[in-house]
Design a protein that fits this description.
Oligomer: single chain
Strand order of the largest sheet: 1-5-4-6-13-7-14
Number of helices: 12
Largest sheet: 7 strands, mixed
CATH superfamily of the largest domain: Periplasmic binding protein-like II
Order of helices and strands: EEEEHEHEHEEEHEHEHEEHHHHEHH
Length: 359
């Protein structure tokens, strides 16, 4: 069962966050029909009937994609979709019990929250947990993130960023990739004119020349890249950033048996969804045409650069090792203020669901 929430300026979450959920404007809330009687309410031995799972997402296209497929149909629990703009607001929403999980949160967001916390986060007291990683499907040919420059900015290399205006959204992967780009070029934040923007504003700022360069998802710049208004300076991988995102849960949700069971079911469905999406980019592209008004060619690029594979986060799993190595680099580059133990920030309880979903 799915409950689309359509809001703007949601003050009722006690965080003062500006949340917009795709679908319509205003303060309306609509609820779908109740769960079909043919759907079992038992998930992993737990009765989840009457449970609502609040899922944070980042792009309107995510909702279009889920509506266009059957992977999230007939859930024995309610899904409340909450649209958030950036890693910072999402971490706040998780920490403030405004959402239960984030689907697609920057993999750097939880380590950054831990590094900036007043007390050390351990496996026992960490407020947030990474429960799955989303690895780019074909990062060499279709990078999920890039350092881009306006065509008239005179920037053809990372070294050319010196003295230029430079944008990113603070707190997440765009921020991390932006810092690593400077680090690779031998530059620091003091060598550029930093212009912090919300995620939704970065692509248009670079495209129009309001900012000369910045760190962005490739999908957000698909139209500008196709039109030649923006040029790719480097991919995220070329500056040392793997480009993973994650599914993150608040620890309080994991401690609730019903929500825990619902998350496990959701992760399994998301794994199947991502496997299908990576294998069917033409079908996924239709959602980008509808949500972002892209041409077919632009939408296909967006679909391919957002394709990913869901990975488990066991202590010795390859994805976890990637995160450990990345965290060390992020400390050296200055993105993280201190070393954090990434292995204390992951929870692998849904590994079986991920393995089954990838079959």
């Amino acid at each position: 069962m799915r409950i689309p929430r359509h809001m703007s300026a949601v003050g009722a979450l006690a965080l003062g966050l500006a949340m917009v959920v795709s679908g319509c404007s205003g303060s309306e809330s609509t609820e779908s029909d109740s769960v079909s009687s043919s759907v079992s309410s038992i998930v992993n031995g737990v009765d989840v009937s009457g449970t609502t799972l609040r899922v944070g997402i980042f792009q309107d296209v995510t909702r279009v994609q889920t509506e266009n497929t059957e992977f999230f149909d007939d859930t024995p629990y309610n899904i409340e979709w909450v649209r958030l703009n950036g890693a910072g607001p999402t971490v706040q929403a998780l920490g403030g019990d405004a959402i239960d999980i984030s689907w697609g949160l920057s993999d750097t967001a939880v380590p950054k929250a831990a590094a900036e916390a007043k007390e050390d986060w351990t496996a026992e007291n960490a407020r947030l947990k990474i429960v799955a990683l989303l690895k780019p499907f074909d990062p060499e040919n279709y990078p999920s993130g890039i350092i881009a420059a306006n065509k008239d900015a005179g920037i053809s290399s990372l070294e050319d960023l010196r003295g230029k205006s430079y944008t990113f959204n603070e707190g997440g992967n765009a921020h991390a990739a932006a810092v690593l780009a400077l680090y690779k070029a031998g530059l620091t934040r003091d060598d550029v004119n930093v212009q912090l923007l919300q995620s939704d504003s970065i692509a248009s700022a670079i495209t129009t020349g309001a900012v000369q360069a910045g760190s962005s998802s490739t999908s957000a710049l698909a139209a500008a890249l196709d039109a030649g208004a923006v040029e790719r300076v480097a991919t995220a991988a070329e500056v040392g950033f793997p480009g993973y995102v994650s599914i993150v849960a608040r620890s309080g949700a994991l401690a609730d048996a019903k929500i825990d069971a619902a998350i496990g079911d959701f992760v399994g469905r998301a794994t199947k969804f991502h496997k299908w999406s990576a294998a069917n980019p033409d079908d996924v592209a239709d959602a980008f045409v509808k949500a972002q008004q892209l041409t077919d060619e632009q939408a296909l690029l967006a679909a391919k650069t957002t394709a990913s594979t869901v990975l488990p986060v066991g202590q010795d799993d390859p994805g976890t090792k990637v995160e450990v190595d990345l965290t060390d680099l992020l400390v050296k580059s200055g993105f993280l203020p201190r070393v954090v133990d990434v292995r204390s920030l992951v929870d692998d309880r849904y590994s079986a669901q991920i393995e089954a979903g990838n079959q």
